[in-house]
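Q: AAA domain-containing protein, please. Structure only.
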Amino acid sequence: MDKTGNTERQILEKVDSLSGKLSDLKTGIGEFIFGQDQVVELTLITLLAKGHALLIGVPGLAKTRLVETLGGVLGLDDKRVQFTPDLMPADILGSEILETAEDGSRHFKFLKGPIFGQILMADEINRASPRTQSALLQAMQEEMVTVAGQTYPLPTPFHVLATQNPIEQEGTYPLPEAQLDRFLMQINVGYPDRETERRILLETTVNEEARPTQVLSPAELIEAQHLVREMPVSDAVIDAILKLVREGRPGDSGNDLVNKYVSWGPGPRASQALILAVRARALLEKRLSPSIDDVVYLAKPVLRHRMALSYAARAENITMEDIIDSLTVPLE
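A: Structure for AAA domain-containing protein:
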């Protein structure tokens, strides 16, 4: 029995009742996002784990389309903000205006910004100034914003899916480590293969495109997020997560590559992100509890933005993927 009083049988029944809809959810998204099965899977895991995702990829790889599709299939209110150097915090959070009533009295009225959607796409987030980025930080962590001393709760559920262009870095402000750590995963979006690109050409250049059909309601998504936190995790999986994260910290690690090529490693929030992510993947695959294979599979998207390479690593062409591979091999 878990801390909420549910037995494993009750949790399994909940998993069974949701599994069909989650399968339909993946299918529904796949009808609009072609050839990005892993990206879709990792994004769904992020949402089920009640997290935020950083999508890294060049323009034109359907990142915006993914957010719009998620809004449709989940029945969520989706918003999009194009981040630019002149974007101000009020452009995202909202602002107060002085309003005059019919009787001549005046009062301040708060006009909500786009952050009050349920899915916010922060497009090219690293193009905004640090001041604007920090305004997003409180919302991501606390699910509320403060304007003129007044606190406003954000809608539930609330998720940020931010994008970055990995090529053009002129005029950008790198995200601070504290904000990077707020993203449950960094999801790399690659180019489609030839057959997928052919399908894109044929199905996205017609006069009328189909619209996503809602598969899951916001209430059902919240129920699934609660279920993720109820799922049991074996001691073996917990030990694997702790070993993976702690071995990624230079100085305390027994891994020579980490000690030589890593400037700083993942903190405790990485362990929290991993345990939620592996549970969410188990739920998505209709399993009662996660396995060590889930830990290995999710190590890169969870850890790659929570570690930094040293100058020596860059000089010797050592990548973050090389480092994480050296950490996961002992777990397999």
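A: Brief note, in case it's useful. Residues 1-85+115-217 form a domain with the Rossmann fold fold (CATH 3.40.50.300).
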